[in-house]
Design goal:
alpha+beta, Nuclear Transport Factor 2, Chain: A, 7-stranded mixed sheet, 5 helices, about 40% strand
């Protein structure tokens, strides 16, 4: 088992799932509970419903921010214990050919449970004022966004 290959596979698989807005594909990349932090907040996602809300917010954020591409690169990965990989990757967001903000660096713990490698913990180095940070921190669901979401669903 090559920790770099395991981590890179998860980084690319989760990135493709987000690009394709595929909840099921993304969900297969993460263990529950999924613990993560930003500069502002720590969260623990314990249910499918919470993970779905996080996913929906991330997809909506990409649409609101006009993200057309995300290039993800794995910087490093190593085996810290027989069933644990620690990995660092960077996400670079684009709207057309224009970069949208600074790259987001993510330190993740990938664990082997139930015969599968999945992400269980992540720390996001993301600017607190960005839409992506608001989504991760659970602040995207303002009344205005809820009303807009309801209007899109009814159309």
């Amino acid at each position: 088992m090559d920790p770099y290959l395991v981590a890179d596979t998860l980084v690319q698989r989760s990135g493709n799932a987000m690009s394709e807005a595929s909840f099921d594909a993304l969900r297969r990349c993460f263990h529950l509970p999924y613990k993560f932090s930003t500069f502002e907040k720590e969260r623990v996602i314990t249910s499918e419903e919470e993970f779905r809300t996080l996913f929906d917010d991330a997809v909506e954020t990409a649409q609101l921010d006009n993200i057309t591409a995300c290039i993800r690169t794995l910087d490093t990965a190593h085996l810290s214990e027989p069933d644990t990989i620690v990995a660092l990757h960077s996400s670079h967001y684009f709207s057309g050919s224009l970069r949208k903000g600074e790259p987001v660096n993510v330190l993740s713990t990938i664990t082997f449970e139930n015969n599968e490698w999945r992400v269980s913990v992540s720390s996001y180095a993301i600017h607190p004022a960005s839409l992506r940070a608001k989504a991760l921190n659970g602040h995207l669901r303002s009344q205005e966004n809820t009303n807009a979401r309801a209007a899109r669903v009814s159309n």
